[in-house]
Amino acid sequence: MMDDFKVTEIIFGPQHPGIHGNFGTRLELRGDLVYRARMVPGYLHRAFEKLMEQRTWMQNVAIVPRICVPDPDVNEMAYSMAVENIMGLEVPDRANYIRTIILELSRISAHLMGLGGIGGAIGLYTLPMWTNGDRDYILDLFEELTGGRVYHIFIWPGGVRWDIPDNWPRKVNKVLDHIEARLPEYYSLFFESKVTDARLKGLARFDSRWAVDHGVTGPNLRATGLEVDIRRMEPYAAYEDIDFKVITRKEGDGLARTLVRWYEVRESIRIIRQAVEDMPSGEIRAKTPPPLAFMVPPGDHFARVESSKGEYGYYVVSKGGKFPYRVHVRGPSFTHGIDVLEQILPGNEISDVALITGTLDVCPPDIDR
Amino acid sequence: MNMSNVVKRTVRPFRALKFLGRKPHTVRIPHEQHNDIEGDPLPTERYRGVHVNNWDECISCGLCAMVCPCDAIEMVQIEGEAKVRPEVSYGRCCFCGFCEDVCPKDSLHLTSNHTMLDTSYDTFVFLPTPMLREFEKEYRVEPALLCRARKKDDGKAEIIVGDPYRKVTE
Questions:
Q1: What is the SS3 assignment for A108?
Q2: Long-range own/partner contacts, residues A13-18 (CB < 8 A, 24 or more apart)
Q3: Using CB atoms and an 8 Å cut-off, which of residues 150-179 of chain A contact chain B?
Q4: Best interface-test mutation with B: which of A69, A130, A153, A285 has the largest number of B CBs within 10 A?
Q5: Nearest CA to A186 among A263, A245, A250?
Q6: Residue B145: pLDDT above 60?
Q7: pLDDT score of B85
Q8: How far apart, in whole angstroms, are the C-alpha atoms of residue B105 and residue A299?
Q9: For the whole model, what pTM was predicted?
C-alpha cells in the first residue's frame, strides 16, 4: 500500500521555523508519513573539545557554557566538578548552595523555553509568549547575580565567582512566587486542551527498555517510569541536604514527557526555596591558584550532572601543566537528537516532526559542540 | 470521555482570554526603562558590558591580554604615552570579565553600558579610557544615546545619535 506513493525527499531545517535550532533533518516521505529520517548536524560545530586543549584551565570556563545555550550552567558545573576532583579541592558549603540555586534556576528557564517550543509546534503561540515572558524574570535574576543574562561564567573550579547581593534572595522568592502562580495558567491553557490530547497523547511512545538501549536520559527517561536522576543517585552541589521528589510518569509518550517537565518546574521551585532558606554563611571559594598560574596535577575524572535535557558528562584528563590534555563532553542531545529521532520519526506524520523534536527537548549546540 | 469533560476541555483554554486586558509584558527599549521584578533598574553594576580603563592607575602589566580567552585584548603603543595600553576588539570579546578579575590595580572595568551601534567595523576596536565612564553616566540618565543608521537620498548612510525613532519620523 505504502509503495503506491511517490517518495518525496524534503530537507527540514535548519531554515525552518519548526526546527529547534541549527540542525536539519532529511526526510523521505510517502504521502505525509515519514518513511526514513536522517539527521544533518554540523551547522554549529565550533570544535570546543579541541579548543579546550589550547586554553588554560580557567579560560575554559568561558567556553563551556556555550555548549548548551538554553541551560548553560550545568556545563560549568560538570567541568568545575571534574577539575576540583583532580585537584582535590574542597568546595565551601555556601558555594554549593549558590550553585544549587543557579542550576535549578537554569533548569526552570530551560524547561519554560522547552514548554514554549512544544506549544509553538502545535500552533498554540500563546504559550511561548507566556513562558518566554516569565523566563525573562529569571534572566533578570541571573543578570543581577552574575552579570550575564545567558552565559553566566559564574561557577568555576573551587566555588563561585562572587557572593550573592543583599536583596537577591528576596527577589528570587518573588520570581518563584510569580512563576508558581503562573504554572496553573499554563496547565489550563495547554494540558487541559483537547488539541494537546489529540496531538501529544501516544506520540512517539517508547518504553524504558528501549530508552535505556538507546541512551535516553533525563526527563525523557523518567517519562517512561524509571526513577533515574543524577541529583539523587550521585548527589553533587547541595542536593544531598535537600528534600525533593524525582518526577516520573509511566506512559512514555509526548504528553508524559511534557508533563514531567511541567512538574519538574514545580519541584525546582521547591528546591530553590529550601536552598535559599538553608543557605549557610562562610566562604564562597576554595583557595585556588591565580588564573594565570592555574595548574592541575596529572589525573583524570568523569563528572556527571543532571541537566534539563538529560545527563551531562565531562571527562577531563590532565597531564599536569597549564592546559587540559583532553576534555570530552557527553551531551544528552547527541543521543536524543541523532539516534533516537532517526529511530522514532519513521511512521509519524510530517506535521509531528517538529513536535517530537520539541518533546525530546533537543538542543543542537550540544549535538555539534 | 463523557460530554461534560469534552465541553470542559474545549472551554478551559479560552480562560487565557482574560489576559487581553492586562498590561503588555514587553519593554520598549530605549523608550522605557527595563526593571526587574521589584522595580529596580537594570542593568546593574555587575553587568558585563563595554570596558573602561583608568589610565592613571593602569600599570601596563598586560595580564588582561594574557588571560583573555578570545585574544581580544592587545597592548598597543600610543603617541604621546609612555606606556602601552590595552585595546579591546569587540568582534572577539565574549564579555567574560576575566580581564577585570585579573587586573592588579582594578583599573580595567566592565561597565553596564551595552549599547554599541555603528556602521564601521573600526569603531569596535578601541582603547578603553576613563572617558567611557562619563559616557556611561550620561547613558544612565538619558537612555537615548543609541545610534542608528539611516539611508539618505543620495544613497549614503547617515548616523543618527539620540532618540532614533523620533528623528526618523520627522
A1: helix
A2: A13/A40, A14/A43, A16/A354, A18/A121, A18/A353, A18/A354, A18/A357
A3: 151, 153, 161-162, 165, 167, 170-171, 174-175, 178
A4: A153
A5: A263
A6: no
A7: 79
A8: 35
A9: 0.86
Evaluate whether ipTM surpasses 0.85.
Answer: no
CATH 3.40.50.360 assigned to A2-368: no
Q: B15 to chain A, minimum CA–CA distance in Å?
A: 7
Alpha-carbon distance B45 to nearest alpha carbon in chain A (angstroms): 8
Element (H, E) at A86: helix A73-87
Domain boundaries of chain A, sorted by first residue: 2-368
Between these two residues, A252 and B169, which has the higher pLDDT value? A252
Closest residue of B to A136, CA-based? B36
Q: Parse chain B into domains and list their residue ranges.
A: 37-161
State the 10-residue block means of pLDDT for chain A, 369 residues long.
72 80 86 88 87 90 89 91 90 91 92 90 88 91 89 89 89 92 88 86 88 90 90 88 90 90 92 90 85 87 91 91 90 88 89 89 85
Q: Which residue of B has its CA nearest to A172?
A: B37
Q: Which residue of B has its CA nearest to A293?
A: B67
- Closest Cβ opposite residue B98 in set A146, A162, A291: A291
Amino acid letter, residue B62: G
Find which of A125, A142, A177, A188 to mutate to test the B interface (most B CBs within 10 Å of its CB).
Answer: A188
Q: What is the pLDDT of residue B156?
A: 55
Q: Which CATH number fits domain B37-161: 3.40.1170.60, 3.40.630.30, 3.40.50.620, 3.30.70.3270?
A: 3.30.70.3270
Check CB contact of A127 with chain B, cutoff 8 Å: no
How far is C-alpha B141 from the chain's CA centre?
15
**What are the grid coordinates assigned to A220, written together?**
525523557
